[in-house]
Amino acid sequence: MKFMILVKASEESEAGIMPTEQLLTEMGRYNEQLVNAGVLEAGEGLHPTSNGSRVRFDGENRTVTDGPFAETKELLAGFWIFKVNSKEEAIEWVKRAPFDGGTEIEIRKVFEAADFGEALTPELREQEAPLRAKSAGSI
Q: Range of 82's domain?
């Protein structure tokens, strides 16, 4: 199973305040543990929303809004992709992250082909397979 681990933004991350050397060191150790355990598939920090944009879809219309965005508690500062055997295992790994000060992390299961049932026909699976293979090779 794959889970996306969403690190919520804070006032500091939205202000562009970079992590301390100590936190970067601790995060490096934590990421190394994840890699050594075969859990970590991807993970990155995100720039503040002041460097971002949103695109809103309404029928044929597309509206672009540049950041920054309000409601820091709804924004993201980074993410990981974990490959684990259960949600409980993902939670146990997240609890080891070197955060404090009210950091909030959300854990969401990533859809797998089986989750789509009959709607993902054999033809659609066949069409998707080379795209996934090509995408995996480019990362």
A: 2-112
